[in-house]
Amino acid sequence: MNLIGVNIKRLREEKNITLRELAEKLHVSASFISQVETGKATPSLSSLKNIADALQTTIGSLAGENEKAVSSPVTKEEERVALKQIGKGIKMYQSEDAEGRMCSSASRVWMVFSS
After folding, report:
1. Domain ranges of the chain
2. H helices of the chain, where?
3. According to the model, what pLDDT value does residue 104 have?
4. Residue 1, pLDDT score
5. Beta carbons of 59 and 52 less than 8 angstroms apart
6. Domain 3-62, what architecture?
7. What is the mean pLDDT, run by run of 10 residues, along the chain of 115 residues?
8. Is 76 helix (H, G, I), strand (E, B) or coil?
9. pLDDT at position 101, please?
10. Does the CA dihedral 92-35-9-12 come out positive or negative?
């Protein structure tokens, strides 16, 4: 998934707006919104502006301008959030952003194996 699509989906779900409701508000298909959220379609600049307006945010925010830049590939243990225990000695983690929200980047999810 691309960052813009991930952020659109996150904001839409935070605001309890369904795909269909957002699509109707924008006069586009729910399929189009779904494709944007999953990175299968790229919206035009005007469509992106309309989506941002409907979600009461900015294009910059959707593009991740407010996201904390990852300066190191290493995440400190206290910055990790355990998602679930997959098996004995295997845990899945995700990191949080500066505001304590789960990072929207799929690359910030990993597994730790221990004995």
Report:
1. 3-62, 77-113
2. 3-14, 19-26, 30-37, 45-54, 59-62
3. 47
4. 42
5. yes
6. Orthogonal Bundle (1.10)
7. 85 94 96 93 94 95 74 61 61 58 49 51
8. coil
9. 54
10. negative
The total number of residues shown for the chain amounts to: 115
Tracing tokens 């109707």 back to the chain, one arrives at: 24
For residue 112, the SS3 value is: strand
pTM for this entry:
0.60
DSSP state of 89: T
Sequence-distant contacts of 55-59: CB under 8 A, at least 24 apart = 55/8, 55/11, 55/12, 55/15, 55/17, 55/22, 56/15, 57/11
Report d(CA 83, CA 104) in Å as an integer: 14
* Cα 97 from chain centre: 11
